[in-house]
Design goal:
Two copies of one chain form a homodimer. The first copy, chain A, has 300 residues and is an alpha/beta fold. The first copy, chain A, is built from 13 helices and nine strands. In chain A, strands 3-2-1-4-5-6 form a six-stranded parallel beta sheet, with helices on both faces. Chain A has a three-stranded mixed beta sheet with strand order 7-8-9. In chain A, helix 8 crosses helix 12 and helix 11 packs antiparallel against helix 12. The longest helix of chain A is centred in the middle third of the chain and has 29 residues. Chains A and B meet through strand 9, helix 8, helix 9, helix 10 and helix 11 of A and strand 9, helix 8, helix 9, helix 10 and helix 11 of B.
Chain lengths: 300, 300
């Protein structure tokens, strides 16, 4: 069994480590702050002094942090994993970051005989806890085969989508598709409300048909119930849309609606509500039309 | 059993009439052109000389035509149903038209003691043939109860969504939600293609998760296979989006993405491809980025 190193013990990383421990893996961890470390050590993980020390104690090094600069700091920065990794080790970055930065890091690692996979996930903390994440993997097929037993502990839908960076590209496509779909749901809800139709009845009538989506079924009812608690936070979708729009700029592909939704969500952030769930996009459409979507209400 | 009158024997109306005949209803029909009439008469319908004559021969008068002016012509225009309907008759308009025009027509009918329901459908010709349409109904509850046996012959999901006009409002919400969702799918596909990722693998990786939708599962693969045959034609979605944007203007609710998609689809119509399926929206994103989405391909 490969020895696992794991850096990034936030809301996602902690349950992922626990699942690896429960599956019998030896896991060595580090995190920027104590609570994540303490929780994982209590669950049976070993602790190391920093990314380089974690790297020196493992065969497979996993990072699960927030953004491109965080991954660079953990892997190629001073005291980063690159200082501890032996030739033949495998790095798996499961954060959601830039495909271009991913390829740069992979090239640096390759110079030392270290392979890399990018393997961002969807499914949220619920999926991380249940071990049912969707994992989108970029990299060489042999490395994917090597890592598959590890992925199978953490995820359910495990898809090798292309060469290094492709996992990140697919994750960004996922967020772009979500942006358009959620915007459509929010526009439909505000149109129903202003038209004097109970938005809940509207959703009941259309959710099972051609307008149906995960976003409609899962976030539509929360909007109607004025429940803006996060499944997935606005500020994290904003980070991902910024990455998607940057990647789109790199390849010169206009994404008009992903760009528009990114701009709209600045309004939520400006109101100090970046910690709300992404369904808060409805508030932007509501502010445009001067209405508020509510279950059972009809008209203004 | 109510005697049914049915005007509008196009791709939707014909199978709906046949299902009513198969269920044992007496159906009297009229259409602007012969083929629809001949097909329905061959299936057992009676033929009348025009909408007024159909109306005089039935208890429940159903219209299934294209747009608001068509419904006005058939019901309240010269020779329209209003000239033949007896007090106590029920008019059911199953076309997709303006909620405001619907309410105007209902008011004219009410002056003659004739009730009206608006009952637009989704599910396409496949749903019409199978008798599995989704039917969104606006009107008085007693009239909905009266018409329910008739609806149950033609549809599966039968939802009373509010007062007269509400069925049309909900149908327009349906089209608005579809517009955003389909745009997100098309943006994701073109980003994958330009990023060097096989769009088919991208769809496989994300369709079952939070980005998933009917539009993605049903139209995404057709785009990748360059199959632009219509399920639902661009020119009909354009008609519906025009109605939705008009209804939104009436109630002063901005719908930025529904408006943008409506503008984008003018490009498809300008290329003489208004008869293509709505998945042709992908061509607009492709033209913006100078790419073409294809299964198995990676990059430009």
């Amino acid at each position: 069994m490969e020895r696992i190193g794991f850096v990034g013990l936030g809301i996602m990383g902690r349950p992922m480590v626990k699942n690896l421990l429960a599956a019998g893996y030896d896991v060595c961890v580090w995190n920027r702050s104590r609570p994540g470390i303490d929780e994982c050590v209590a669950a049976g993980a070993r602790e190391a002094a920093g990314p380089a020390a974690v790297a020196a104690a493992c065969d497979v090094f996993i990072s699960m942090v927030t953004d491109s600069p965080d991954v660079e700091a953990v892997i190629t920065g001073p005291g980063g994993a690159i200082e501890g990794l032996a030739a033949g080790a495998l790095v798996i970055d499961m954060s959601t970051i830039s495909p271009a930065v991913t390829r740069d890091i992979a090239a640096r690692l390759a110079d030392q005989g270290v392979a890399m996979l990018d393997a961002p996930v969807s499914g949220g903390d619920a999926g991380a806890i249940a071990g049912t994440l969707s994992i989108m993997i970029g990299g060489a097929a042999a490395d994917v085969d090597r890592a598959r037993p590890v992925f199978e502990v953490m995820g359910k839908t495990i898809t090798h989508v292309g060469p290094i960076g492709a996992g990140q590209s697919v994750k960004l496509c996922n967020q772009v598709a979500i942006a358009g779909c959620l915007e459509g749901v929010c526009e439909a809800l505000t149109l129903a409300q202003k038209s004097g139709v109970d938005p809940a009845r509207m959703l009941d009538a259309i959710s099972a048909g051609a307008a149906g989506s995960w976003q409609m079924s899962n976030l539509g009812p929360r909007i109607i119930d004025r429940d803006f608690a996060p499944g997935f936070m606005v500020r994290l979708l904003q980070k991902d849309l910024r990455l998607a729009l940057g990647a789109a700029q790199d390849v010169e592909q206009p994404l008009p609606v992903a760009g528009l939704v990114h701009q709209f969500l600045h309004q939520i952030e400006a109101a100090g509500r970046g910690g709300d769930g992404t369904q808060a996009l409805a508030r932007v459409l509501e502010s445009l039309g001067g209405t508020e979507v509510r279950r059972g209400s009809t008209g203004d």
